[in-house]
Amino acid sequence: MSGASPHLVSLQSWTGDEIRQVVDAGIQLKADPGAFAGSLAGRSMAMLFQKTSTRTRCSGEVGMFQLGGQAVFLDWRSTNFGLADLGDEARVLSRYFDFILVRFLAHADVVTVAQASDVPVMNGCCDRYHPLQGLCDLQTIQEKFGRLEGIRLIYVGVHNNVTNSLIIAGLRTGMHITVVAPEVNECATDTALLAEARASDRYLETDDIAAAVAEADVLYTDTWLDMEYFDDPDYAEEKARRIRLFEPYRLSRALLGSSEALIMHCLPAHRGYEIESELVDDPRSVVFDQAENRLHSQKATLLKLAGLLP
Predict the structure, then answer these.
(1) Tens-of-pLDDT digits for all 310 residues of the chain?
(2) Which of 113, 128, 270, 271 could, after both became Cys, cross-link 90 (CB 3.0–4.6 A)?
(3) Domain span at residue 146?
(4) Cα–Cα separations (whole angstroms), residue 297 to 33, 91, 194, 302
(5) Number of domains within the chain
(6) Whole-prediction pTM
(7) Whether residue 236 is found in the same domain as residue 88
(8) If we measure between CA atoms, which residue out of 279, 1, 10 comes closest to residue 132?
(9) Cis peptide before 120 (omega within 30 of 0)
(10) Angle between the 131-145 and 161-172 helix axes, to the nearest 10 degrees?
């Protein structure tokens, strides 16, 4: 990959051209699903998940099937990964499989697997990055506007793993990124990424949500509290605190007014919390197109890591 990492741990290891290559390939695959049919025949992918999943699991399994390969889902709790050395187990997986897709709680564990593996590793979500979501999001924006250059994306809510991936992918492809976030998830803090972003004249952090919305081509939000904690009674106090803090940052019809900005959310959404329920189904919403594109973008990423994209 042009001298870059053979893995996709975060999009910081990819150039703008590499990001665009996957975005364009995802659009091609969506328009012509047969274009690369059978291109991964005989190849297999391990999918090792600590976190629950809908889009990442389905796009991985269906994507490999449509490309002629096989995906094997491994729930962390039903393997020896929790009992053995993580690096040792990753080395074993890389003797069986051609790709490894991990969905982990901690970024450090993604790095450990990538360092131990002899085959490409994809980060399907961790506490610091969500690169597969970022690639899918840019594909959706490219589809809707016909370009990435100059598009103004406003992210509203908690600064998290999705925010980090949007920042790096957006800036490297010529987008303008504004973050309206009263709080950063501590585990998502990336000082190097923020330093790179703040050095760009296409990046802004602001508390003025109304001004940001007025300039938006795309309005993007995500859950205020990670899904696995939302209904956990042990997190009830933290949930209540976050609702009080983030309520002024809810995407709503009143906030958007006559704005024609597209509405994006990586899903699953907590309707009525970070986004007014009616906005999910609003004509400006592209959240379900966005969700569909996880499949096409995943396929493009697999082909990229296999060295099969032109």
Answers:
(1) 333 459 999 999 999 999 999 999 999 999 998 989 999 999 999 999 999 999 999 999 999 999 999 999 999 989 989 899 999 999 999 999 999 999 999 999 999 999 999 999 999 999 999 999 999 999 999 999 999 999 999 999 999 999 999 999 999 999 999 999 999 999 999 999 999 999 999 999 999 999 999 999 999 999 998 777 788 898 899 999 999 999 999 999 999 999 999 999 999 999 999 999 999 999 999 999 999 999 999 999 999 999 999 8
(2) 113
(3) 134-290
(4) 12, 27, 26, 9
(5) 2
(6) 0.95
(7) no
(8) 10
(9) no
(10) 50
200, 83: one domain: no
For tokens 């990819």, what's the residue? 14
Query: Same domain for 273 and 300?
Result: no
CA distances from 225 to 129, 179, 181, 196, 238 (A): 15, 17, 13, 26, 9
Query: Which residue do the tokens 């309005």 mark?
Result: 219
